[in-house]
Amino acid sequence: MFTGIVEELGEVTAVENLGDASRFRLRGPVVTEGARHGDSIAVNGVCLTVVEHEGDEFTADVMAETLDRSSLGVLAVGSRVNLERPMAVGDRLGGHIVQGHVDGTGEVIERKPSENWEIVKISLPADLTRYVVEKGSITVDGISLTVVEAGPDFFTVSLIPTTLDLTTLGLKQPGDPVNLEVDVIAKYVERLLGSRGEQPAGLPGSQGATS
Fold it and tell me: What are phi and psi of 149, to 5 degrees?
């Protein structure tokens, strides 16, 4: 489990095509400290397994399914990536519960800078809109963020200078893809209510939840 608090901005140093998968080599001095074979590291919000570790670099294999369903397929040598190690038992949960399982991808639509923060508008796949609410949590490229506005096919987030300086969201431009993971609690609530024959308010075909 992760928290969505990015530990460092890493870099892709090599990409090897394995046919039905790709092997990435990534540099990250912080996340590789004490890393071992089989450990998990979130790369732009995708939970990957460490295959090899040498110095401040590690390798991870990414299967075709993950490449197709996330933005990792567009990474190339020199790409910057958000890196986070799993949360240790007893650590503070600084962001929110993040699984590292990408639900879909969005696209940066526009950026509106101001003196002390920046508003970023991101497209939202239709099948994820029901999980996104104003002031709720969403993970964008592995970053735990608070939703400012939840539209029918987009959402906005407000980014402080620290987030812009220390994560990929300071580099993303309109048209760039981002990985999205919605709040897992919302998905569990939907499943539990569905198993009881109830339909949460706002879901397709619902007339409001019953009790």
Answer: -130, 135
